[in-house]
Predict the structure of Alpha-galactosidase.
Amino acid sequence: MAVTYNPQTKQFHLRAGKASYVMQLFRSGYLAHIYWGKAVRDVRGERRFSRLDRAFSPNPDPSDRTFSLDTLPQEYPAYGNTDFRAPAYQVQLENGSTVTDLRYKTHRIYKGKPRLNGLPATYVEHEQEAETLEIVLGDALIGLEVTLQYTAYEKWNVITRAARFENKGGERLKLLRALSMSVDFPTADYDWIHLPGAWGRERWIERRPLVTGVQAAESRRGASSHQQNPFIALVAKNADEHQGEVYGFSFVYSGNFLAQVEVDQFHTARVSMGINPFDFTWLLQPGESFQTPEVVMVYSDQGLNGMSQTYHELYRTRLARGAFRDRERPILINNWEATYFDFNEEKLVNIAKTEAELGIELFVLDDGWFGKRDDDRRSLGDWIVNRRKLPNGLDGLAKQVNELGMQFGLWVEPEMVSPNSELYRKHPDWCLHVPNRPRSEGRNQLVLDYSREDVCDYIIETISNVLASAPITYVKWDMNRHMTEIGSSALPPERQRETAHRYMLGLYRVMDEMTSRFPHILFESCSGGGGRFDPGMLYYMPQTWTSDNTDAVSRLKIQYGTSLVYPISAMGAHVSAVPNHQVGRVASLKTRGHVAMSGNFGYELDITKLTETEKQMIKQQVAFYKDVRRLVQFGTFYRLLSPFEGNEAAWMFVSADRSEALVAYFRVLAEANAPLSYLRLKGLDPNQDYEIEGLGVYGGDELMYAGVALPYRSGDFISMMWRLKAVQR
Ligand code: GLA
């Protein structure tokens, strides 16, 4: 690994893992993008793009009609001075104009990776793990400086990018657009992948060819959202799960984002990503600065699995933080689908008794324990225990749960307020709203204005009191609606469009404070299931509730899609009751177990309503998962068969030393007289023999190259799980 600058060629060369990323200064300080891909020793910059007099591509230097920014591949393009493609940034001056001209000023290369002030970001533990390059660009006319921040990791094909704006001049500047990165690919011969969805149907994989014009994934909902995820990839036409070139872009942010690819007239592709410029501006007074969030860019020449494995390892070990980062996560049971709002201490303790007997480790009390919360129409914001339901408080309940041998966890939704609450009656201006307009409700609730410091401070104190009041070791941090009428009573008119981003900065401060005050608590984020399953949240909370849809068949797609970017340890997956509450399907307990055991495992049902046989099966599932959980949560994950492409799905987990593996196979619908199918495994040691429990001993080479014949079974929604262990034959 090294980041170098060659003063002769004026080239910057970042070497990250086995990849190269090359930039070059052209003419009077334009920063051009030259190459990104498999490591090279050298690239001849000027040969990488055309120097032709192109019609309708104007020239900043009238004496050279072959030079236009419209045809120059760039790193941080502007609009207004000859490039007509989507810009990375746009700044308005006091005179109303929006033309700026950033040129190279200076640069700095150093070991390690700096933190991003107030924002989540990947990090290093030792400065040898990465090298950072900062390139300072400046607009001499207005004293604007933009520092492009690049970090290249040593171990992975990972480059992170962000940008910092500094107003060093004397006038007020307004950022209209401040994306985190932009990169120009010399060709558009790629497919692109994004992860659209909906509540209960998050992160379905869509792959389609790039076409001329703009294609984008974005959120305007005030959260990263169920509807789109802050991730896209460019995928070579011949690339699949196991081979071919893939470029991943993942945004470490939980709010409005834009991820876009523009294919231009010359069939080049510009990828840009950052805070969504839609409804965003930021006022930069003289002396002020603005930091964009980070984009994590991964190059893989090993197909989509190669890309995902890089994201998994990086996000598990250098994005997630805290005591639980490397720790096996407890098997939990959540009372939501068991009782909804209808519970009391006696009922909960009764359920907990059976759960403890089955070996479950953590009891989570979901919504309904506070204020007058008997349904979802009231009391958010009133974080005071409901003594009618819990006469001995959280402490009394938690102690009884502890005595049964289980830990105690709690649900909170601290970013919200119900109009029907004490908090709202006292502070009606503490929610997002605009003057003189109605406040639209979602699930009968309003969004607290986290752009306000006083609101954040109040929440930190109130929730801290709750968490300190009982032996709580787990928190589910929920967020159940998106933002409307986005405005803040604490901001002046010219800063209203800063509200959504200021909210995120406030939220990040609150989460930072909470997780630092309570380092012994495992935090899981949630937003109506996986509505905020993003890297920003994972920085503070190492796991996320993947989806409110717990149906095993639906989960095949949801978990498969989520695994494109996010580590298995981060993916909450629970067995729930049948008929399933979201889709009405009846899948066997075995299949439900196999799907949930492919993630961060737990249950979400009333265990006392099950038969003795079912309870025994749960006991076995719990014991089995405890045995394989290190492998599942921290092993290398391979997707084998895609549920988006057919009737089957399969994946596997391999231990770091390849001595152990776990394979899961699912078939959705039965077919009469079906052809035989073979499943080819991945990631094993070809020279090693493996025992598959119940099936005998096979060579790693045989399992990977010839495959294993799938036993024929009749019935819908069937699953199989095999455990492999290296043996001497
Ligand atoms: C959201 C969550 C659920 C549950 C409910 C409680 O929908 O995703 O898991 O906690 O809220 O109201």
